[in-house]
Design brief:
single chain, two-stranded antiparallel ribbon, alpha+beta, CBS-domain, 21% strand, 5 helices
Amino acid sequence: MFVGSVMSRHVISAGMDDTLQAVRDLFESHNFHHVVVLDDGKLVGVVSDRDLLMNISPFVGGLAERPQDLRSMQRKVHQVMSRDPVWVTELTPIQDAARLMLQHDVSCLPVLDGRAGCRGIVTMRDILRWLVKTDACRLAA
């Protein structure tokens, strides 16, 4: 099986100069955990929900929120994104994608076409879902 059969084709992207507030809004409105960062249509980075949490004040939205906490939401994506992300193609075997995630300690891989255009994203959750489905099929046979 290949990545193309399990990846999400609905990709949410941000620009390098978008704010962390904009990324937070994307996460909340789309219920995703990763955003690819594009510059002139080419992949330049990835921001995860964990990247966001590590780079904003824990007081944002709370009773103890201060102006400097709100300023953390105005930081730019390029300041916190993972640069030069590891990526795969739709024809990458799922097992190879899983190995890459483990080797590079990442929870998602952008799926690119031959021109560096982003076609989708594959996450650990996608791979686990495939694994459970595959095992369930073997047990039923």
